[in-house]
């Protein structure tokens, strides 16, 4: 399936790439408004869904059930504290090579992967 990227999708990708972390659809909607890129919330959701299916955005669900989006380029992983909710970003990707192996052995095009670690942070344990 080769979908054409719409103008709205292009703007969303642009914003996501400029961000350090991930963002919820609601915050993304506000961010777009701040940049004078007025887009309805429904369009934001629809565009994010389309981009997800194209493998251009990554979705992560937080412990409060909220979905946050980020651009695929950021292959980043987190250490999340189950007590205070602090999320520490780790720089290296421990499964980068595994991804290539799986693509070969299963003939599967991997868009992205998720990997998270949970436990107690320095202040909580
Ligand atoms: Zn903590
Ligand atoms: Zn990774």
Quaternary arrangement of the chains shown? single chain
- Summarize the helix and strand pattern as letters: HEHHEEEEHE
Number of helices: 4
How would you write the strand order of the largest sheet? 1-3-2
Which value, in Å, is the CA radius of gyration?
Answer: 16 Å
Structure report:
The chain has 125 residues and is of the alpha+beta class. Helices cover 37% and strands 20% of the residues. It has a three-stranded antiparallel sheet with strand order 1-3-2. The protein has a three-stranded mixed sheet with strand order 5-4-6, with no helix packed on it. A hairpin with a 5-residue loop joins strand 2 and strand 3. The longest helix has 13 residues. It is flat. It binds zinc ion (2 copies). One zinc ion binds next to loops. The site of one zinc ion has 7 residues, from loops.
């Amino acid at each position: 399936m080769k979908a054409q990227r719409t103008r709205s999708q292009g703007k969303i990708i642009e914003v996501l790439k400029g961000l350090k972390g991930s963002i919820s659809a609601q915050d993304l909607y506000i961010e777009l408004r701040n940049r004078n890129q007025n887009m309805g919330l429904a369009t934001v959701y629809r565009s994010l869904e389309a981009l997800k299916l194209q493998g251009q955005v990554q979705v992560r669900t937080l412990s409060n059930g909220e979905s946050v989006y980020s651009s695929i380029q950021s292959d980043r992983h987190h250490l999340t504290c189950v007590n205070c909710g602090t999320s520490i970003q780790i720089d290296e990707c421990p499964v980068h090579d595994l991804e290539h192996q799986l693509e070969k052995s299963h003939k599967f095009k991997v868009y992205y992967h998720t990997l998270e670690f949970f436990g107690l942070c320095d202040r909580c344990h």
